[in-house]
Design a protein that fits this description.
Layout (H helix, E strand, L loop, with lengths): L13 H6 L7 H12 L4 H11 L3 H10 L11 E6 L2 H6 L1 H12 L12 E6 L11 E3 L2 E3 L4 H15 L3
Parallel strand pairs: 1-2
Antiparallel strand pairs: 1-3, 3-4
Helix pairs in contact: 2-3, 3-4
């Protein structure tokens, strides 16, 4: 996806490698720190980690793909996790998905071209009484309706954009 700021600043990893220098078995914490810095794990970073640790890139990639916590594709600055468990599905998640598709041309697992929003579909957020429910950047949004969801997203994205 040729979007905003495609260059990867590998110097962001310098302090991570200093922190874990000489430690065996540090691959997972290094991947976690890398993802904190970039929001995902760019291929250039996976290659750098392999080189610095003296292990094959295939091992780094294997670990990164094994654990669901790691993302190998660029993610949005804002993450919307939309629940499609039974209660949420029955109470309107399909309508919310349609609104996201129409307004943002975005389906679950995708990120907007401008890199602002990623939508993920999850199958239970444990808040069935608030169905349909979503979590936007860690904030629970309950009893959602199309207009409320779109208004909240617009406000969050517009507030975050540089003036």
């Amino acid at each position: 996806m040729g979007t905003h700021n495609d260059a990867v600043d590998l110097s962001l990893m310098d302090d991570v490698f200093r922190e874990y220098e000489g430690q065996r078995g540090a691959l997972i914490p290094i991947l976690q720190k890398a993802q904190e810095k970039y929001g995902w794990l760019p291929p250039e970073v996976l290659n750098l980690i392999a080189k610095k640790l003296g292990i094959p890139v295939s091992k780094v990639f294997g670990v990164a793909t094994f654990y669901a916590q790691f993302y190998l594709e660029r993610r949005g600055r804002h993450i919307l996790r939309l629940c499609d468990g039974t209660a949420c599905h029955v109470r309107g998640t399909p309508i919310l998905l349609t609104a996201l598709e129409e307004h943002y041309q975005l389906e679950p697992g995708e990120t907007t071209e401008d890199g602002e929003l990623t939508v993920e579909l999850v199958y239970c957020l444990g808040s069935c009484a608030l169905a349909p429910v979503a979590v936007l950047d860690g904030e629970v949004l309950g009893r959602l309706r199309q207009n409320m969801l779109l208004r909240t997203l617009k406000k969050r994205i517009d507030l975050a954009k540089p003036a």
